[in-house]
Amino acid sequence: MDTATKYSAVNLLPELKIDAAKYNRIPSEEEILSCVKAIQARGIDVIRVDNGIQALDTIKTIMPPHAEVMNGSSTTLIEIGYQEFLENGIHTWRDMHKIVTSENDPIKRYEIRRKTVIVDYFLSGVNAIVMSGELVSCDATGSRVGAWPYAAKHLVLVSGVNKIVPTLQDALNRIIEYAYRLEDARARKASGVPSQIGKFVIIAKESLPGRISLILINDILGY
Could you tell me if residue 168 is inside a domain? Predict the structure, then answer.
């Protein structure tokens, strides 16, 4: 991990009774290669990198200057330095997240956020990757996963290999038993409000070539 924060899993796990060894391991190279092949067979591009620095460099390469960009809340994006890079403003992208958060009227902010799912490039973390190639994630309200199925012109997903699990049922279990509990702990500490599992999204097939890219990092990152 390149940058652990106080809300990274490594700092939240000690207070939670979670089987981290089951849901937060680095698979064998053979397993990773098999999984990558299965993901690609589902119409999703996979870019493998060794660390978060390379992942951030890849994002900078994928997203062209002046593109509209939006990201869902993601511990992985924070840990690879994307959030800091975006907030520093040393880019030419149109940062839709900044536009959303700069609106003080809650009704107007909601309307702007609702429209951000149709941006040129939407970035997000992933909660689970199935060996058979499905990509799975969830969110409390849907703002983080609403762009996944169709709306965003390009979907850029970033994940550590620790999200790889054997079956789709394991993916759902990982979210319920592991990712959700960590996110709930983070939300309570960060805002005093509990989290919830509101919306699941499963990408089983992408029919538009080049629409979805998965940057797969050979490291343990995120929830």
Answer: yes
Cα 11 off chain centre by: 19
Report mean pLDDT in 10-residue bins for the chain, 223 residues: 83 90 94 98 98 97 96 94 91 93 92 93 98 96 92 97 98 96 95 94 97 98 96
DSSP 8-state class, residue 175:
I
Beta strands in the chain (DSSP E): 45-49, 68-71, 94-95, 121-125, 128-130, 135-139, 154-160, 164-165, 199-203, 212-217
Average pLDDT over the chain, rounded to whole?
95
Domain containing 43 equals 26-217
Of the candidates 177, 15, 144, 9, the residue with the CA atom closest to the CA atom of residue 74 = 144
Query: What φ, ψ does residue 221 adopt, rounded to 5°?
Result: -140, 150
Q: Which of 32, 46, 31 is CA-nearest to residue 206?
A: 46
- Report which residue type is found at 44: I
> What does the pLDDT read at residue 4?
83
Q: What sections of 63-175 are H helices per DSSP?
A: 75-79, 82-88, 96-101, 106-115, 168-174
At 2 the pLDDT is 62
Task: Let me know if residue 33 belongs to a domain.
Answer: yes
As for how many domains the chain has, the answer is 1
Examine residue 223 and state whether it is found in any structural domain, yes or no: no
Q: Is residue 158 within 8 Å of 77, Cβ to Cβ?
A: yes
